[in-house]
Amino acid sequence: MYDYAHMLKKEDVEKLANLSRINISDDEKEQLIVDLDAILGYVDQVQEAAKDAVEQDYGFLENIHLREDSNPHEEGAYTQAILDTAPDTEKGYLKVKKIL
Amino acid sequence: MIIDVENLTIKEAHKKLIDRDFSAVELTRAALKLAKERDGEVDAYLEFFEDSLEQAKFADELIAKGDASMLTGIPIAIKDNILINGKIASAGSKILEGYVSTYNAGVIKKLKERGVVFIGRTNMDEFAMGSSTETSFYKQTKNPHDLTRVPGGSSGGSAVAVAVGVLGSLGSDTGGSIRQPASFCGVVGLKPTYGAVSRSGLMAMASSLDQIGPFAKTVADAEFIFDSIKGSDDMDSTSNPNPEYKKAPEGKLTIGVPYDFIKKEGVDKDVLKNFEDNIEELKKAGHKIKEIKLPNAELSLAAYYIIMPAEASTNLARFDGVRYGLSNNGKDLFDDYAGKRGDGFGVEVRRRILLGAFVLSSGYYDAYYNKANLVREHIKQDYKKAFDEVDVIATPTTPSPAFKIGENTSDPLKMYLADIFTVPINLAGVPAISVPCGAVMREGNELPLGMQFIAPHFGEKILFTVGKVLEEIRRTN
């Protein structure tokens, strides 16, 4: 039986928050340790249940129906409407702070 | 003329529209009036659409031309996570406050062509994450049967809208978000087979589980809405282009009951008593009751709370603040992202995104996500085996009647348990319906209960058949 639950530390929560690009207050981090530990403790059941699993038992795709990649809509038909929903744009582009 | 919207079904309204007893404009006006009156108390809606009467005029033109179908001119409400071109869709979240849809969802396209009238958008748990509509950024929707109780969720607003009068509504169901609030509010709610209804234009929470479905006052009405929204869509590669719908069974039904699964600790004893009484009535009506086993069903919630947050954390990555919503005010690009996502997402959404990031991170991926998918496969097989022996499976929809506002908010795990009977259905991808089946008394209020029927893939007709049987039993008793 794995036992990852009840082991989360503040640094773990900070790492997850960082990966998820979400600022979280110190108070909430403490609460998240408690909540995530409880949830992970509960979902741990799947590991015992599936301990003899082999790769072929899962992971296959089903019910996916691909269409032909053709007949695109007219270029630019939705551009303005989509740009209008963004907070900051310039000359038909979405604007963000400089990266380098 | 006075139209009694509160007691009007789609079937009756359709007849009256065709017979010109009233027009779609008159019906819409009456439905809006009632919804606005009741909304002061129940807070089901986030917005009433100003162009409702314009939409109704189009419906009246269709009727005049003889082009009416069953839903033409019928006023319905739409959950806040389904896109209607030009209208706000916020998914109950601050991060999408004021976001205006740039296209129509697949289901909206279909309904618009038929002249269905959308009167407003309904409140919901933020990004459909919740079982009580308490995580909405905007307001708390109340249960019309007891205003101190939750309506259920996440489609709480759509359930309440129908419970207080509108003729139908659309919700979305990822782990019970249509059936559970339908049960709590005393209306019918259907979660269709995965792939039966287009998800295009539904804001995705967990793409392998989400499905749009109807709320209605009767099983027949839910069937009319389902028939109007089903069908394949090029814009959703998981909508099935060649569904093989099963025929409705003739004669008496064989109904499977997974007693082992139902009689767990934590199920309210009045709920269990009500369920057994209803099963007894079905037996008296000549239907065969057969005990079945679903050995993996009790692992459903554990698998669900791995798969759902994994998919949700991926889906919600698109809300980066660059393409939608809140303005930029961070010190650099990372801070723009993290600031807006920290501020724009509520506590439950943040919790699930972090949980998803955890179960997908390298080192834990095999232990959690892959194992959960295996359990999911086992659950699917359980149903497959069960349907070799029975036409349909029955369970209570929820383990308890509606709980108090605030009762479960501090304990996420306790909140999650409200979905114990509905979650396995989404994992298996099969359809299920919640049908009102009586009530329990709590503090002087009658709180509705629902009975859930589950059918094999594309067995919706079986659900409508057995749902109507139960309605008939309850009408005559």
Which structural class matches the secondary elements of chain A? mainly alpha
Strand order of the largest sheet of chain A: 1-2
Please state the oligomeric state of the protein chains shown: heterodimer
Number of strands of chain A: 2
- Proportion of residues in helical segments of chain B: 25-40%
Please tell me the overall pLDDT of chain B. Answer: 96
Largest interface here, residues on each chain?
A-B, 50 and 68 residues
Largest sheet of chain B: 11 strands, mixed
SSE series of chain A: HHHHEE
In the predicted model, the low-confidence regions of chain A spanning at least 5 consecutive residues are none
Characterise this structure.
The complex is a heterodimer of chains A (100) and B (477). Chain A has 100 residues and is mainly alpha-helical. Chain A has one domain. Helices cover 38% and strands 4% of the residues of chain A. Chain A contains 4 helices and 2 strands. In chain A, strands 1-2 form a two-stranded antiparallel sheet. In chain A, a hairpin with a 2-residue loop joins strand 1 (89-90) and strand 2. The model of chain A has no long low-confidence stretch (mean pLDDT 84). Chain B has 477 residues and is an alpha/beta fold. Chain B has one domain (1-252, 396-477): Amidase signature (AS) domain (Amidase signature (AS) enzymes, Alpha-Beta Complex). Helix content of chain B is 40%, strand content 14%. Chain B has an 11-stranded mixed sheet, with helices on both faces. Chain B is globular and about 65 Å long. Chain B starts with 9 loop residues before the first helix and ends with a helix. The model of chain B has no long low-confidence stretch (mean pLDDT 96). The chains are: A mainly alpha (100), B alpha/beta (477).
